């Protein structure tokens, strides 16, 4: 087994946000959940291409001042997460590494093999607990991407608003009215 080229020691306490700044920039996604470090391997090029295409579609429909950011940190109760896309409200501060839930209109995760359970179960629960109004999860289906759209409901849980697939261009209202057409995204 190859030895790391840096000296790594976990803290002798629960992980905190400032600990993330001491980790290597090696392409892995480092997140903190309830004081534990979670490491996800780098996603492949097809994952990033799909995330970029969705980002562009949302960005082109965005009203003035809204921002669509890739992999900005989000503070959640007991930790820090890195969604694939975060839609920031117009009044959100511009020079922060970590977004506050009140500044977020939507978070979006593109599933990959290494993140499936995390994106389906762990992250939505934390985004809901943080009070983020909308969550989208994108899966790669056999015929193209499928978007699962959720809205924060009663009791800090997301309610499914609907799904849309590559043959279903649809008008949505979150976080603003726009038309989404997954057939334009990579398969």
Automatic annotation (TrEMBL):
CDD domains in the record: DUF820-like
Domain of life according to the entry: Bacteria
Putative restriction endonuclease domain segment(s): 18-176
Signal sequence residues: none
Keyword Ion transport carried by entry: no
Sample GO molecular function, one term: endonuclease activity
Short name of one Pfam family: Uma2
Keyword NADP attributed: no
Keywords associated with the record: Endonuclease, Hydrolase, Nuclease
Name of the protein in its database record: Uma2 family endonuclease
Species this chain originates from: Micromonospora parva
Taxonomic lineage of the native organism: Bacteria, Bacillati, Actinomycetota, Actinomycetes, Micromonosporales
């Amino acid at each position: 087994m190859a030895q790391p080229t840096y000296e790594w020691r976990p803290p002798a306490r629960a992980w905190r946000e400032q600990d993330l700044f001491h980790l290597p920039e090696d392409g892995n996604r480092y997140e903190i959940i309830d004081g534990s470090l979670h490491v996800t391997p780098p996603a492949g090029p097809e994952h990033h291409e799909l995330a970029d295409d969705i980002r562009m579609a949302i960005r082109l429909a965005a009203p003035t001042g809204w921002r669509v950011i890739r992999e900005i940190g989000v503070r959640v109760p007991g930790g820090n997460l890195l969604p694939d896309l975060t839609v920031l409200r117009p009044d959100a501060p511009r020079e922060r590494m970590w977004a506050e839930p009140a500044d977020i209109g939507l978070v979006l995760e593109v599933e990959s093999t290494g993140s499936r359970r995390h994106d389906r179960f762990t992250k939505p629960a934390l985004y809901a607990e943080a009070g983020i109004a909308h969550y989208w999860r994108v899966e790669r289906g056999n015929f193209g991407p499928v978007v699962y759209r959720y809205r924060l409901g009663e009791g800090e849980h997301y309610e499914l608003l609907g799904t849309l697939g590559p043959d279903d261009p649809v008008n949505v209202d979150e976080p603003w009215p726009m038309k989404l057409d997954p057939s334009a995204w990579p398969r």
